[in-house]
Amino acid sequence: MLRTFICSFLLAICLSETISIALSFRHDQSFVKRSISNLLATKQCPPVWREVSSALTKQFLGSDGTCNDDARAAIRAAFHDAGTYSLKLAAAGRVGGGADGSLILANEYNRTESQGLSDISTKLHALGLQYGVGVADTIQFAAAHAIATCPRGPRVSTFVGRKDSSQPSPHGLLPGLDTPDQLIALFKDKGFDEGDLAALVGVHTVSKQFFEDPSSAGAPQDNSVGIWDVNFYVEQFTPTPGTYRLKSILDLSANPVVGTQFRVFVINPRQWNTQFTDAMTRLSVLGVPGGTQNLIDCTDALPPGVV
């Protein structure tokens, strides 16, 4: 009987504690739900990307403190990997195109429109293998890093977690010697309006020309190449001797919508940075299912950039 009494007594205590805990949980369940939701929503950037960032700083920063030729090529590589996306082809069920690493994995850097990207493609592929990260992610992360490495360059929101693809992207989806109307239509088929186009072409502020006019190979496209500023837009209206103006962009400057936006950026560089970073982030996830929703934000692994 004593044993029975002890067991009953202990059971009563356990039940009392259980009820107390249950009541407490019921009162605090909203807090618990919020905590779980926050934990599920938190996606921490893998530490390896800070190691990648450190390596890219050494690779992209020139001895004069400006961004160098590898940085320029990395930015161009991101455009050429992601820029092969088409809303029309995607709607028709055509697979391929977008920020999937195929620039490197399908050797698209050998295409005529991507000439000059072989060297940086080899370097970025090796970097991805060294740190065990995806090629598509490496391309877009490197571009964002290069932009932030340039003096006055902004931080572009940068995400990782893309799926790599070795399937070649469709041909004919990258800009070339297009008329303004053709360029506007080409970018609209990727989800960009005239304002986005105007902002994105400003990336040529840190660019050099090599292929449109081989006799002027290596000519900068503004008078402060290696520094992120609006001088590129100024050049379209008041060229500096020794700089090179791409015909397609010079023609764009005469477009009533895009050209007006160029002039706005000249007097308001902060607006250009705002519009550029927004458009660049969207470009970096073209063709990625769910866009940024299924990716991890690694912006904090980049150099500080400007506000």
Report the count of strand segments: 4
Number of helices: 13
The shape, in one word, is globular
Q: Strand arrangement, largest sheet?
A: 1-4
Arithmetic mean of pLDDT: 88
Major sheet:
2 strands, antiparallel
Whole-angstrom Rg? 26 Å
Percentage of residues in strands: under 5%
Cα(first) to Cα(last) distance is: 77 Å
Helix content bin: 40-55%
Q: Could you spell the SSE succession in H and E letters? A: HHHHHHHEHHEEHHHHE
State the secondary-structure class: mainly alpha
Which blocks of ≥5 consecutive residues have pLDDT under 50? Answer: 1-41
Name a few traits of the molecule.
mainly alpha
Topology overview:
Layout: H1 2-41, H2 48-60, H3 69-82, H4 87-91, H5 102-105, H6 118-131, H7 135-149, E1 159-160, H8 180-188, H9 194-200, E2 208-209, E3 219-220, H10 231-237, H11 247-252, H12 258-267, H13 269-283, E4 296-297
Antiparallel strand pairs: 1-4, 2-3
Helix pairs in contact: 2-7, 3-7, 6-7, 9-12, 9-13, 12-13
Characterise this structure.
Mean pLDDT is 88; it is low at 1-41. This protein is globular. 39% of the residues are buried. Helix 12 packs across helix 13 (269-283). Helices cover 52% and strands 3% of the residues. With 307 residues, the protein is mostly helical. The strands form two sheets. A two-stranded antiparallel sheet has the order 1-4. It has helices at 2-41, 48-60, 69-82, 87-91, 102-105, 118-131, 135-149, 180-188, 194-200, 231-237, 247-252, 258-267, 269-283, and strands spanning 159-160, 208-209, 219-220, 296-297. It has 13 helices and four strands.
